[in-house]
Every structure is written in C-alpha cells, then in structure tokens.
Design goal:
Elements: E1 6-15, E2 18-23, E3 34-37, H1 40-48, E4 59-64, E5 70-75, E6 81-85, E7 93-98, E8 102-108, H2 116-128, E9 132-138, H3 145-160, E10 164-167, H4 176-183, E11 187-191, H5 198-203, H6 216-225, E12 232-235, E13 241-244, H7 266-272, H8 297-303, H9 309-329
Parallel strand pairs: 3-5, 8-9, 8-11, 9-10, 11-13
Antiparallel strand pairs: 1-2, 1-4, 2-3, 4-5, 6-7, 12-13
Bound molecules: guanosine-5'-triphosphate and zinc ion.
Length: 330
C-alpha cells in the first residue's frame, strides 16, 4: 500500500448506509464526502476500551479502497466528547459527538417558550463534558420591549455564571453576524428543542454545502425519508464547523449519581463546598444533597437570594430524575 492510500479525515455523518468522512486537505464540501466502513475488529476494540464507537466529529485514519470508499484503520485521540445517556437502553452511554470546543444551546424567546430547566440540563451536560457553554436565544423579533426586559432579567442569571448569552433573530438579522464571527474557526455543538429556528440559524452562519431544510412541510418530508437521528458535522466558511444534533426533548446523563449533581451547577457548588473544592463541604452533613437537610449552605443561599430560585428548582428536578433512573437500574 502506498502512502497516498492512507489519509486522515473527519467523521461528518452516520446513517444506516455507513459512516461518512471528509478527508483532510480537500474542500470541506458535502459533495467531497467519502463513505467508509468501520471494521468489526475496531468496533469491538472501541467498545472494550470505553471509546464506544466512531462518532460525528471524530478524527480517523483511513485507507482508500479500490471502489472509492474507505476503511477506518484507527480512531485518533479525542480532545472532548459529548456523552448522553441512551434513551432506551438505560445507563449505556450514547456518545453524540467528539472534538467540540463548546455546546451552544439554542432556544426561542417564544413560540415555543424556552424552559430554563432544559437550558440547565444542557449546561450540566457541558459541565460533564468539560466544555464551554453558550446560550443562544432566537426569535427575539417576537418580543415587545417590556418582554425583552423580562428576558434580560432572566438571562442575567446565566451571564453572572459566565455563560455567553447571544440574542438572535433570523427575521431581523439581529445578532447573526456576531454569532457567525464567534463560531468561525472552532467546533460548536448546537442543540435545542424542535422549532426554535435552529436550522434557519445554521443556514445563516455560512455552512458549506446544501442548506438545511427549515419549513414545516420539508421537515416532515425529511423525517419520512430518513429514520436516522445522527448528528451532522457542517463545515463553516472560513474554517471550523458546527455539529447539528437532532432535536432533543431531554438530556439524560450517563454515569451520573444524584449526589454528584451539585458539582455540575457552578452556582450551587460555590456554596456547597469551600472554594468549590469537593473535599470541603460546607453543609452540616458532609453528604448533604441540599434538599431537606438541616444546616444546608445551599438552601440558605437560596433563601438569601444568592442562588437563583429557578436554578435551584432545576437542580431539584434533575436530582429527582437521576434518583428515579438510579432506582430503575437497580
Ligand atoms: N419570528 C421568527 N421566526 C423564526 C426565526 N427563526 C426561525 N423561525 C421560524 O421558526 C420555524 C422553525 O424554524 P426551523 O429553522 O425549521 O426550526 P428548527 O429548530 O430547525 O426545527 P427542527 O428542524 O424541528 O429542529 C420556521 O417557521 C421558521 O421560519 C426567528 O428568528 N424569528
Ligand atoms: Zn446542603
């Protein structure tokens, strides 16, 4: 085999026909995708060593085959990975994407109204993946001036936690150029509930290749044709990419015990542990879960208004859902 038959590539898409990659050094356009196979021996090794499988965003070394397709020889080291619990198989990991620099949670200012609980879940997932988190609020054009002020007050909670909050409208173009600038040159996983305008937004960020379908009709059509829910790696003009993940209603957490949840809420963690150090709990009970226990530093901070009620409510809800999942596993 000559050297030119071996190349490195990025995994951009997966569906029942196979895994699709974009070889390095050629224009990162959809039409240059190459279909490849992941040999059974490699699949088995990935399962055994905990890397699970080849996912969108992965870097791979491949070998070109005579029929124009390719075979993956090796999965190259990952710098980050987004792990979600599998919807149906209980506590088995579902790795959604790899090698991202951040997760951007896209919600709508209204139609559909955004739920802080959803945002908090995605933010926990970013914390768990050790990845930067952005909150993108789209459809800003639908708000009156006074509603906008309410929104500003609500998102101030996130801004105080150091989260970048980006306000956009694909109708008026507000914030689009700023977002376009910010995503360029790096890899952003984009996640959001259905109907928030995620596809409309991505189409405005300068993705190379076919625009994403956005209207209700084409969306239904698209769902009919493909049954896949793979993420898609979309190269950006000027470098970098966005990874479009299929609409998620809920984020589950793989391998997370309820009692470890406080570490994923930076605001709660700050009060629960001296200087955020998990070895130095501040509540009366070292194993406090910050629900009903007396002498809880977190609840006291909520009562003083130093932790937002809304964030604490999310903590309690996610805690309860983790408890329920843990119960189901046992
Ligand atoms: N008013 C307003 N409507 C928008 C905006 N962005 C998108 N929309 C509309 O919202 C609807 C949903 O937009 P999509 O881009 O298809 O939404 P999506 O989030 O990709 O939806 P899924 O494909 O279900 O995940 C469409 O009717 C868009 O025209 C916006 O900024 N303002
Ligand atoms: Zn406590």
């Amino acid at each position: 085999m000559s050297d030119r038959d071996v190349f490195e590539a990025t995994v951009v898409y997966k569906d029942p026909r196979g895994t699709f990659i974009l070889p390095d050094g050629i224009e990162p356009h959809e039409r240059n995708r190459v279909r490849c196979v992941v040999p059974g021996a490699l699949k088995k090794r990935l399962l055994e060593d905990g890397r699970v499988k080849v996912v969108v965003g992965d870097r791979v070394r491949c070998e070109r085959l005579a029929d124009g397709t390719a075979r993956v020889q090796e999965l190259l080291p990952r710098r980050s990975v987004l792990v979600r619990r599998r919807a149906r198989d209980g506590n088995r990991p579902q790795i959604t994407a790899a090698n991202m620099d951040r997760i951007a949670c896209v919600v709508a200012a209204r139609d559909p109204a955004w739920k802080p609980g959803f945002v908090d879940r995605v933010m926990c997932a970013a914390q768990l993946s050790d990845t930067e988190f952005w909150l993108v609020i789209n459809k800003l054009d639908l708000l009156s001036d006074s509603e906008r002020e309410q929104l500003d007050a609500q998102v101030a909670i996130y801004e105080q936690l150091g989260v970048a909050v980006l306000r956009t409208s694909t109708e008026t173009g507000e914030g689009i150029e700023a977002l376009r600038e910010r995503v360029r040159g790096s890899v952003t996983v984009v996640s959001g509930p259905s109907g928030v305008g995620k596809s409309s937004l991505l189409n405005r960020l300068g993705i190379l290749g076919e625009p994403l379908a956005t209207s209700e009709i084409s969306r239904r059509h698209r769902k009919g044709r493909h049954t896949t829910t793979s993420a898609k790696w979309l190269a950006l003009e000027g470098g970098g990419a966005v990874i479009d993940t299929p609409g998620v209603r809920a984020f589950g957490f793989y391998d997370l015990e309820p009692e470890d949840l406080d570490a994923l809420f930076p605001d709660i963690r700050r009060y629960a542990y001296a200087e955020g150090d998990l070895d130095r709990p501040r509540c009366r009970f070292g194993d406090c879960t910050h629900r009903e226990e007396p002498g809880c530093a977190v609840r006291e901070a909520v009562e003083r208004g130093e932790i937002a009620e809304q964030r604490y409510a999310s903590y309690l809800r996610i805690f309860a859902s983790l408890l329920e999942e843990a119960g189901r596993r046992r």
